């Protein structure tokens, strides 16, 4: 189905009976009508002065030409039919020559080349017959034929030029619309990706803190008779985790409000902060073993972008172990070297006791897979046959 603009320009018969001409359409149709009338008047004068035409035929020629000029108003509805009918009429009437030229021009503008080729070729073929029936007193037969063929070809060429120009303008307009739509889609996609990044960052940052709060609050709820030292330690962890979560939340809100990622003054953690993360987990009562097997054991040598991704993966792994395997010993292993890549794994056996009900949706593992993929790496996780859990990520490390 053609768009309305293309249908109006190149296929007026598809616009529908209820469509109304625009001001531009009325002006174009009126101009074509005046052109047909003007050329018809010239043809009528030529017929009246032509000694080769029998007396009484001039009136018939003029009546036929007037009807042809009136039919010009039908050019938008039936361009093919009008141009085809005008071929024999133009042979019989010189006054209808202007209307025939307008019909042929309209055909070249509004219809494909196959229609123009057949009807235009037929119009050229009848030129010798026209001048044989009504010779021109001012020109020889050969010159008259050449002039008629040249004039018909010029009308067809002009119409095809107008059609090509309109097609070019419509193509440029369509490209502009597509470019605007693509720009809107790119903007929408960029907004969606930004929202996903913010959501992933909020999950990675806040889940670790809130899990600490949930675990220790649950311990206080189910063990109100715990020793005072444990209660004090749990309360301290809750207070510290609440403070850290509030700071992290302020940082993310600052980003949402258009600020920079470090607007709070707190730099994004890298792999150099892994020791602090492990110590924090140990303070919360977890059993964590950190195995640093890098070629250069100094974690500060790891690039910042790579280190941030590895840190978030380790943080999420420890958070999951704290939620789903409380009391189990967790092993965090970091291996790799420049040019070989960095491998980080978090492994834990089955929990020794009952696992408390801790809310979770599995979005963390999905976010880690997206992080690793965006960094050009790989991420996988699996449950062990003994009830344990193992997650591992490989990230590229340029040499």
From TrEMBL:
GO terms for molecular function: kinase activity. It is an enzyme of class 2 (transferase). The keyword Transmembrane helix applies. It comes from the Bacteria. It catalyses: ATP + protein L-histidine = ADP + protein N-phospho-L-histidine. Keywords: ATP-binding, Kinase, Membrane, Nucleotide-binding, Phosphoprotein, Transferase, Transmembrane, Transmembrane helix, Two-component regulatory system. The chain crosses the membrane at residues 26-44, 56-74, 80-108, 115-133, 139-161. Residues 195-258 form the Signal transduction histidine kinase subgroup 3 dimerisation and phosphoacceptor domain. Its EC number is 2.7.13.3. PANTHER family: NITRATE/NITRITE SENSOR PROTEIN NARX-RELATED, NITRATE_NITRITE SENSOR PROTEIN NARQ. This is histidine kinase.
């Amino acid at each position: 189905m053609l768009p309305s603009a293309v249908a109006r320009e190149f296929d007026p018969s598809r616009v529908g009976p209820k469509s109304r001409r625009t001001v531009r359409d009325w002006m174009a149709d009126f101009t074509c009508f005046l052109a047909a009338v003007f050329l018809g008047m010239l043809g009528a004068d030529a017929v009246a002065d032509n000694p080769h035409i029998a007396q009484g035929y001039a009136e018939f020629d003029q009546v036929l030409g007037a009807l042809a000029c009136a039919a010009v108003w039908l050019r938008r509805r039936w361009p093919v039919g009008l141009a085809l009918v005008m071929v024999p009429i133009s042979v019989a009437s010189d006054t209808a020559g202007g209307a025939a030229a307008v019909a042929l021009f309209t055909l070249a503008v509004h219809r494909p080349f196959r229609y123009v080729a057949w009807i235009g070729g037929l119009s050229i073929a009848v030129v010798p017959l026209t001048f044989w029936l009504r010779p021109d007193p001012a020109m020889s037969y050969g010159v008259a034929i050449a002039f008629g063929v040249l004039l018909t070809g010029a009308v067809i060429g002009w119409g095809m030029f107008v059609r090509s120009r309109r097609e070019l303008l419509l193509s440029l307009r369509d490209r502009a619309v597509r470019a605007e739509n693509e720009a809107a889609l790119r903007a929408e996609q960029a907004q969606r990706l930004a929202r996903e990044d913010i959501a992933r960052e909020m999950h990675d940052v806040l889940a670790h803190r809130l899990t600490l709060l949930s675990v220790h609050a649950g311990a206080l709820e189910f063990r109100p008779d715990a020793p005072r030292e444990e209660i004090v330690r749990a309360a301290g962890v809750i207070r510290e985790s609440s403070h850290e979560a509030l700071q992290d939340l302020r940082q993310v809100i600052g980003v949402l409000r258009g600020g920079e990622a470090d607007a709070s003054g707190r730099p994004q953690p890298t792999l150099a902060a892994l020791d602090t993360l492990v110590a924090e987990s140990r303070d919360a009562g977890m059993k964590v073993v950190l195995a640093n097997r890098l070629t250069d054991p100094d974690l500060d040598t790891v690039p910042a972008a790579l280190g941030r991704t590895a840190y978030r993966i380790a943080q999420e792994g420890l958070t999951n172990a704290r939620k789903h395997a409380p009391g189990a010993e967790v092993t965090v292993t970091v291996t790799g070297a420049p040019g070989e890549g960095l491998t980080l794994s978090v492994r834990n056996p089955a929990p020794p006791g009952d696992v408390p009900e801790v809310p979770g949706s599995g979005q963390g593992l999905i976010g880690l897979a997206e992080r690793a993929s965006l960094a050009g790496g790989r991420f996988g996780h699996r449950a062990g046959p003994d009830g344990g859990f193992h997650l591992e990520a490989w990230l590229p490390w340029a040499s």
